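Lab meeting prep.
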Amino acid sequence: MIDQEVLRKLVPNRFPEDEYPGELFSKRPFEGPERWIGAWSAYLRWQLRAQANEAYFGKRIDRSGFIATGIFRVTRPDEVAVDSNFPIVEGFQFGALFLRGAPDPEVYRSAIPLEGGRLKAPVREAVASIYLHDRSDSDGCIAAVYNDDAGVPCGITARHVVQRYRRGDRVPLHCSDCGYQARMLRTAPGLIDAASVTLPCGGPHYRCPPPGQLRSAVEGETIHLHLGQSGTTACIVMASVSTPSQIRSAAIPQHFLTEKHGYPGDSGSLVSSPDAPHLPADLIGIYLGDNVCEDPDGVLATYGFALDIKQAADILGARDVQGVFHD
């Protein structure tokens, strides 16, 4: 896991001096490096939106599948790519990464001015391949459970795990309490890779501790991936991931990248914050797979890829959600 001292050196230890929508912080206090990394990431997204109408820069945004803001692995630390005030520290750097589906003959490395030009943040492009971690013999996991309005026990998973099934079909997900297969309920529309299933018994609610908040991830914070096949691992939230339309509208990102990743069979697992004294774990995300980024020099970096669980729960109509911790 990235050392906390490394994280503290990546961005200024203060809030940006410009005004911007401060939508990212929850009621839980953040006192570590995530306090500043999360604030600078939200500010960087705001500045990307402000620059999106500039012809050339806006074209690069629109040609991207996703735009990520936060921390990235720098695969060529000996290369000074752009004039930036954000340092490379032990192979990591703060900035923006445009994720494309194919290489561009024109290598794009630039910087975006912040705080009226007093600072510059690096902007790069990479070819990204997202690999969803379901598989035929053990398709995935359940991230959280809840009761619907009729009192029926349900679970939340990744949509791609169960997308080939219709309502009422048995799906290759098993209740962690009774061991029987769940049944398909509904899928979320659009880009939301989430679905609900019904559980055959009362569900494993009594095994699930009361959660803290249902909230979005904050860049730089320590989290736990509760991977149903690979086991639990602690890691860092690297970056938030937005679509070009979200950047232009300043909407909250739906996805985020993590320092570590799982393997096939882990799709649908829970992502949470760690427990803290007198604070239960917050429910943050649904694990989907990994994101392999190839820079213009052909060097690869792999991140975990997850979905915002709060947004998924809201769209699926799930209330009083409890996390399924695959420990």
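Slide two material, second protein:
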Amino acid sequence: MLCSGLSFAQVPEQQLFEGYLAQDLSSWDTFITTANWDQMSDNERTLLINHEYGFIPFMSDQNDPRCRQLLDAFWQHIEAHKNVLTPSQYATYTGAAHAFEYLLDKSKIFSDGMQSFKLAKQAVEADPNNPIALSLKGNVDFYAPKLFGGSKKKAMDMFLLSEQLMHNDPMYKYWWNYPAMLLCIAQCYEKMGNKEAAIQKCQQILREYPNFVFVRDEYLPSLLSK
């Protein structure tokens, strides 16, 4: 328990944020896998859940065998924290968990996939000013097939509103969700066929976050080379 508390203290929020920008999530791994839920404050638990929300799809992309274990813990933490989360936050994170179930097993499109779509919509309806809910709804709209209601235009509307809300709220200064949202906007511009707007968004991102490695070293150069 003492070691877990020490590990948490050694991974402050700013370090987690800088790890995201640097594409080095080793600090996230330490934070998530050593966190002692029973010893955490409500704010620390909320921070943990939000980083699990970002960490699981990253680890899925890496084909990490721990994904099932990480997702099971995510589910447990959401339910344990339900009385602290707002209805919008609860719907957001449970919607994300269903999306991750589909991510790990594509046969779950008509169960977890559709449930994720439904909960993302409920999260925004519960609080239209929750930027994390808006970002999830935007991602669901972005990736869902048109047959299931997917729309790049609807996704962009969600992304832009989420960006505005996070930009105006100092609470999100060290939340990875904000630069991630800016990247979503750039990628959405690209998928909508507006490469120039995507380039301009990337340039804006780098003015604010010059150490955003993926945008600086991979994504923007790929746009410029097309």
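Talking points for slide two:
The mean pLDDT is 92.
The CA atoms of residues 61 and 82 lie 28 Å apart.
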